[in-house]
Design goal:
The protein is mainly alpha-helical. Helix content is 85%, strand content 0%. It has one domain. The longest helix has 27 residues.
Length: 124
């Protein structure tokens, strides 16, 4: 599986996770909990998408040093965007912290398990 295919697959799984957590939160806690979960999932998803779009493409003309620098720059942008999105979400009225953090954690878990499983599958 090429890098871009893996990135696309991770983003798809993250979006599916957001929808599942959103639906569960809405069903169990109502509209406010569902919206909170949706926003929490997006706080995890959107920075990953930005990173993937900006830095997820292969460029054979780049040196290893340039690739590493671009990766660290992309991670810095991703972290800053994540922090900014958390600030924005928690300034919205009616937001519940628990569904926000549960959805965010679920999206990030999908990211790490996807990478772990892809590395495991490449060893076989």
């Amino acid at each position: 599986m090429g890098l871009f295919k893996l990135v696309r697959r991770v983003l798809q799984l993250q979006m599916l996770t957001i929808l599942l957590v959103f639906a569960c939160a809405w069903a169990l806690g109502g509209k406010g909990q569902g919206v909170s979960a949706l926003l929490g999932g997006l706080v995890g998803f959107l920075p990953n998408t930005v990173f993937a779009l900006l830095f997820g493409r292969k460029d054979p003309g780049k040196s290893a040093n340039q690739v590493v620098r671009a990766f660290y720059f992309g991670e810095t942008i991703k972290l800053a965007l994540t922090a900014l999105l958390f600030v924005v979400v928690f300034h919205l009225p009616g937001i519940s912290a628990l569904p926000v953090f549960i959805a965010f954690a679920a999206v990030m878990t999908v990211f790490w398990f996807s990478l772990l499983l892809s590395n495991y599958q490449s060893l076989e």
